[in-house]
Amino acid sequence: MTPYSEAISHGPRFITLSQFCQRYQVSRSTVYRLAHQGGFSIVKFGRSSRIALDEVEAWAQSLPVMGEER
Q1: Would you list the domain boundaries of the chain?
Q2: Is domain 12-62 classified as CATH 1.10.520?
Q3: What pLDDT score was predicted for residue 61?
Q4: What is the pLDDT of residues 9-38, one digit of tens each?
Q5: Is residue 40 within 8 Å of 51, Cβ to Cβ?
Q6: Cβ contact 40:59 at 8 Å
Q7: CA–CA separation, 10 vs 6, rounded Å?
Q8: Rounded to whole angstroms, how far apart are CA atoms 51 and 40?
Q9: What's the number of CA atoms in the CB half-sphere (13 Å) around residue 29?
Q10: d(CA 10, CA 27)
Q11: pLDDT tens digit string along 30-58?
Q12: CA angle 41, 47, 57 (to 5 degrees)
C-alpha cells in the first residue's frame, strides 16, 4: 500500500485563486475572465476554488513574448 503523502505528491497539484493573482499580478476578476476565455479551468472543492497547476503553467507558456514573433 502506498503511503498517503506519497500518493498526494503524484496527483494533480492545485493553487488557489489568490495564489494565482499574486503570482501573475492580476485581479480576481481577471482570473475569472481568463478562465471563461478557455485559458484554464477553475475547480470547486466545497467552497474553495482552485486551478490545476499544470493548466496554469500551460497557459503561461502560451503567452506571447514581447519582441518575439510566433
Answers
A1: 12-62
A2: no
A3: 93
A4: 666 799 999 999 999 999 999 999 999 999
A5: yes
A6: yes
A7: 7
A8: 7
A9: 0
A10: 30
A11: 999 999 999 999 999 999 999 999 999 99
A12: 30
pLDDT at 10: 66
Calpha distance 2→32 (Å, rounded): 36
Q: Which set of grid coordinates corresponds to residue 43?
A: 475547480
Neighbour count for residue 51 (Cβ, 10 Å) = 22
- Minimal CA–CA distance to 15: which of 66, 56, 67? 56
pLDDT in tens, 58-69: 999 999 998 866
**CA separation for the pair 70, 16 (Å, rounded):** 31
